[in-house]
Each structure stands twice: as C-alpha cells, then as structure tokens.
C-alpha cells in the first residue's frame, strides 16, 4: 500500500505513535514594554513619564481591552471534531507564551518580567521589578487552551519566579490535559552579564483515542485499576532550562538559552537550544531569535522568529512579529506565521492581548491574553546592581 506522507491522517498516526512509545509514566517598565536599566531606576522613569495620564482616552482604551478580554474568554475554543494539525503545532511545542511574547514573536534576549520564566530565566535580572500576572492562551483549531499565572521578583541581585499553568487539548480527539509548574532563578554577575536556571515539572494525561483507536500508540497507557478504557498518566517528568544574557552596550542584548535540557527524546518535552539578538530602548524593541527543536517531529528542526514593539503615547504598546517553522519530519511544508498585539500599560498594571496566524502551511491560530500587576509601584525598596 502506498502511503502519502503529506496526508495529515498518516502523519498524525506516526507522530502519535512515536510520542506514546517514547513516553515514560511516572522592564521593566512593565511586562508589556521593556525599559532598560538606568541610574535613576525604571520605577522613577515610569512615574516621571506616565503619572497624570488617566485621561478619557486612556480610560476608553482600558475599557476596550477589558471588553475584548471578556469576549474572547467567553468563546468556546473546543474543537468540534478531532484536530488534524501536526502534533507539534497543535501542542505549540509544549511552549507557554505570554501575550507580549506571542505578539512580538522573539523575546529570548530582551524580554523580561513574567515572560522570562518561559523563555530565558537569565532575563529576570534585566530590570528591577516585582510582577504578578495571569495568562490565557488558546489554539482554536487544536481545541487547546491554557490558564495560569506567574510571579517574579527581581528587586534584588538574585532574582526568581514561579509559574503554574494548566491546560486542555483536543477534547473531541486526544482529550489531553497538562499541568506545568516552574521555578526559576537568575543572578546578575554584573549589570551587563546575567545567568539563570529553571526547573520544570510536567504532567500530561490523555483519555481520548487517536486515529489508531484503542492502542498504546494512539490511546496512551492503560490504567489497570480503571478498565477497560481508563488511562494512566502519559508523561510525568522533571526537566530544566538554562540561559545567559549579555549586554555589551546598553540597548543591545545577546542571549543563549536551552529548554528541557534533560533531553528525554520525547515530543512532549522537546529539547530546544537557541539564541537571540535584540535592540531595546524605552519606547522601541526589535529582536531576531533562532532555535533548534531536536524532538518534536523525531528529527531536528528549526524555527526563526523576528519582531518588534513600539510604545505610543506612553501607554499603548503595539507589537508585530513573524515566525518561520521548518517543520522537518512532520510531513508538512514549512510554515510561515505573522503575529500582532496591543496593550495598555500604566505604572500599576498592564493588560495585553495578541494573536498569531499562519499564512502558509497548516492553518493555526494562537490567541494570548494577560494581565500583570506591578507590585513595585507600591514603592518597594530596590537594590542597586
């Protein structure tokens, strides 16, 4: 029998088989806008430029963002039928993206705040801040939705953060649930040199059946205590991330990072290694990142991201980005996607929303919404570098 490797059905069959068989039980201005460190401190700079701007226009912008948040949160992002996206894309390669990182697309070098715990733990120390955030992320075509929160404290030379994110995927097909908890720490060796490391606990459970039906390859692991269709945890593991960020001059950021470095050779926890170069000022950011994905499709693949951000009227960050996904080993052609986002930011909080949409390759849409409260706006004491 001839099998067309470009047929999504057969690609999903072999992708699911490989995952299941390998599984083992078991800014500183705000989060929305990066503000480089200055001798006067980020908090003083924000207050100097932003206080007194609670105009009618600002209130209308905030009301519009809250309305959009309510509208998007009220939608049912469950797939009406089993997802046909390649498993890596449907699973978003196991990555959690904040609204800012999704909109810009590339923030491994210059991104700070709560995004650091998901991108590059070394970046905690790029600013002095104490942020508490909540986030949501949706992929309608895959029936995937994530909900969670994160907290980070970089008011001292040793900084760190915690995150907790739970999610659901493809309820009419794989019926997969995930639990992702992280803790990360960073240390500023010098104002221009930052290193970080983070630990990650991941639990994946799958109750549904893929295209091969009630089998280990397509349905996960049987639970002997809940016959005939009960399933044991598909994956439960601990792994770690690491990163380093260097600032040879104040607006320039160069980073190297690695994720899931235990390298389980499993598409549910793919090992990612890469780097990025960013240029960021108080009102403008541009960055280019690249990474190698060693496991999502059973063979090394690559993704390249580029994007930027501009701050308008001191309260409105506009974001734009692009992603190239080689998708080698997926049976699909390389994918191109564009992203965009908007936010509302004041010294006390930030509200952000972004969307990414494929323009070629498998049809995928990702939506992210987040709200971050800036605890340091209360006047917390901040240590100098």
List the SSEs and their pairings:
Elements: H1 8-22, H2 42-50, H3 56-74, H4 87-90, H5 99-104, H6 116-119, E1 130-139, E2 144-153, E3 158-169, E4 176-190, E5 193-206, H7 216-219, E6 221-222, E7 231-246, E8 252-259, E9 272-280, E10 284-293, E11 301-312, E12 316-325, E13 335-345, E14 349-360, E15 365-374
Antiparallel strand pairs: 1-2, 1-15, 2-3, 3-4, 4-5, 5-7, 6-7, 7-8, 8-9, 9-10, 10-11, 11-12, 12-13, 13-14, 14-15
Distance from N terminus to C terminus (CA atoms, Å) equals 66 Å
CATH class: Mainly Beta
Q: In one word, what is the shape?
A: globular
Going by helix content, strand content and strand pairing, the class is alpha+beta
What level of helicity do the residues show? 10-25%
Number of structural units classed as domains: 1
**Count, helices:** 7
Q: Report the biggest beta sheet as strand number plus sense, adding barrel if it closes.
A: 14 strands, antiparallel, barrel
Determine the CATH topology.
Porin
Mean pLDDT across residues: 81
Q: What oligomeric arrangement do these chains adopt?
A: single chain
Rg from alpha-carbon coordinates: 21 Å
What is the H-and-E element order? HHHHHHEEEEEHEEEEEEEEEE
């Amino acid at each position: 029998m001839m099998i067309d490797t470009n047929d999504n059905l057969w690609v999903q069959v072999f992708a699911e088989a490989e995952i299941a068989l390998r599984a083992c039980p078991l800014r500183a201005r705000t989060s929305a806008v990066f503000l480089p460190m200055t001798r006067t401190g980020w908090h003083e700079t924000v207050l100097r430029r932003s206080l007194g701007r609670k105009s009618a226009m600002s209130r209308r912008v905030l009301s519009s963002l809250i309305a959009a948040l309510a509208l998007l949160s009220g939608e049912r992002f469950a797939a009406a039928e089993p997802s046909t996206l390649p498993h890596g894309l449907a699973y978003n390669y196991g990555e959690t993206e904040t609204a800012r990182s999704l909109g810009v697309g590339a923030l491994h070098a210059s991104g700070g705040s709560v995004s650091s715990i998901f991108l590059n733990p070394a970046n905690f120390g790029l600013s002095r801040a104490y942020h508490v955030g909540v986030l949501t992320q949706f992929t309608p075509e895959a029936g995937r939705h994530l909900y969670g929160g994160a907290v980070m404290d970089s008011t001292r030379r040793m900084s760190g953060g915690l995150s907790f994110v739970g999610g659901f995927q493809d309820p009419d097909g794989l019926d997969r649930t995930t639990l992702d908890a992280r803790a990360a720490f960073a240390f500023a060796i010098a104002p221009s040199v930052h290193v970080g490391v983070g630990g990650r606990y991941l639990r994946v459970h799958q109750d549904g059946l893929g295209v091969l039906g009630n089998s280990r390859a397509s349905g996960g692991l049987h639970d002997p205590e809940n016959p005939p269709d009960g399933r044991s945890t598909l994956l439960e593991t601990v792994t770690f991330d690491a990163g380093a960020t260097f600032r040879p001059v104040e607006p320039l950021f160069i980073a190297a990072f690695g994720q899931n470095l235990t390298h389980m050779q499993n598409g549910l926890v793919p090992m990612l290694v890469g780097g990025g170069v960013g240029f960021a000022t108080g009102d403008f950011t541009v960055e280019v990142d690249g990474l190698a994905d060693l496991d999502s499709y059973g063979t090394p693949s690559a993704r390249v991201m580029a994007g930027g951000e501009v701050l308008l009227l001191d309260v409105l960050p506009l974001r734009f980005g692009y992603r190239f996904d080689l998708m080698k080993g997926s049976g699909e052609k390389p994918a191109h996607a564009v992203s965009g986002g908007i936010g509302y930011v004041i010294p006390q909080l930030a509200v952000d929303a972004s969307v990414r949409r494929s323009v070629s390759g498998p049809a995928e849409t990702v939506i992210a919404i987040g709200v971050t409260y800036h605890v340091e706006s209360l006047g917390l004491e901040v240590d100098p570098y």
